[in-house]
Amino acid sequence: MGDERSFRVALVADRYVNPAPGTVDGLAVLEAAGWGVMQLPDDAYPAEVARLLLAEVAEQVEEFSRHGYLFILVGERAGLDEALARAGVAIPPRVVPASAAELSEFLAAQPDPPALAAAWDPAG
Amino acid sequence: MGVAFVAHCLLNQNSKVRDGAHCAGVYSPIIDVLRAEGWRVEQMPCPELAFAGLNRFWAVREQYDTAAFRRHCRRLAAAVAGAIAARAEQGEDIVLVGVEGSPSMGVTITSSDPDRGGRPAWPDGTPEHTGGEGIFVEELHAELDRRGITFRVAGETHALATHDVASERARLESVLEEGHG
């Protein structure tokens, strides 16, 4: 079996990964649509804990971005914009979905990842 | 129930070493069990991704066991341990879900070959798996011990010759249940 990665990565606010009852289950939508997830720190974390975690997220986003992986942002997280800027990465297209259908529509509207046009054939 | 700190690739198979992604994005056999059992899911960084990049080679533990990689892992471990400590202070049960056979994320099985190096060539079936933790898990374990935080471990097992999804799921469910025994 070949490599099955999608080259699609969503930065996702914690509330969409661990949703409260009755709220949007973003992880389920992203899983079904074949997107990878980079989870953002829970808003409840102390600022210093979140800062360190966001710095690591940004560094990993930089590596993916250099290789043409497609990024989106689902939800919001204080400090993320600054962390991405420090890593030299642009803020990706953002959605704050009020429903699973809204998130699905947003995902469907995204372009193909640039990496898919690169030489590496993931099925190879 | 509690908080499961999971290996990065369990939510994002795009982080895997080339030819290692088992699915498009979220590795559902593990994540679905955690969510069905009512556990919070929190993702750890991938130690290999930011250090060696997306074009890294498959590697064994000895190839990553350098002072520089350990410094990198200690930095990551400090960040993750801060999050784990916050949850532990809330009285949450903590489980680490790693990747068995991984040189960095193995929790009970890592990979070892002291002679590996040079031009990459390793035939299928190389007997590289051995008991022990990967380097990041080892550093995180040390940091959590220093903070007096206890935890249990489980692992995704795709890399093992004995892998099957039903057994992987049963082992995870058993580890999750231990806290309620």
Task: Compile the SSE list and pairings.
The complex is a heterodimer of chains A (124) and B (181).
Chain A (H helix, E strand, L loop, with lengths): L7 E5 L1 H4 L8 H8 L2 E4 L7 H20 L3 E5 L5 H7 L7 E2 L4 H9 L16
Parallel strand pairs in A: 1-2, 1-3, 3-4
Helix pairs in contact in A: 2-5, 3-4
Chain B lengths: L1 E5 L1 H4 L16 H9 L3 E4 L3 H6 L8 H4 L2 H23 L3 E7 L9 E3 L17 E3 L3 H12 L5 E5 L8 H14 L3
Parallel strand pairs in B: 1-2, 1-3, 3-6
Antiparallel strand pairs in B: 4-5
What does this structure look like?
The complex is a heterodimer of chains A (124) and B (181). Chain A is of the alpha/beta class and 124 residues long. Chain A is built from 5 helices and 4 strands. Chain A has one domain. Chain A has a 4-stranded parallel beta sheet, sandwiched between helices. In chain A, helix 4 links the parallel strand 3 (70-74) and strand 4 (94-95). The mean pLDDT of chain A is 94. Chain B has 181 residues and is of the alpha/beta class. Chain B has one domain (2-114, 127-147, 156-178). Chain B contains 7 helices and 6 strands. Chain B has helices at residues 8-11, 28-36, 47-52, 61-64, 67-89, 135-146, 165-178, and strands at residues 2-6, 40-43, 93-99, 109-111, 129-131, 152-156. In chain B, helix 2 packs parallel to helix 7 (165-178) and helix 5 packs across helix 6. The radius of gyration of chain B is 16 Å and the shape is globular.
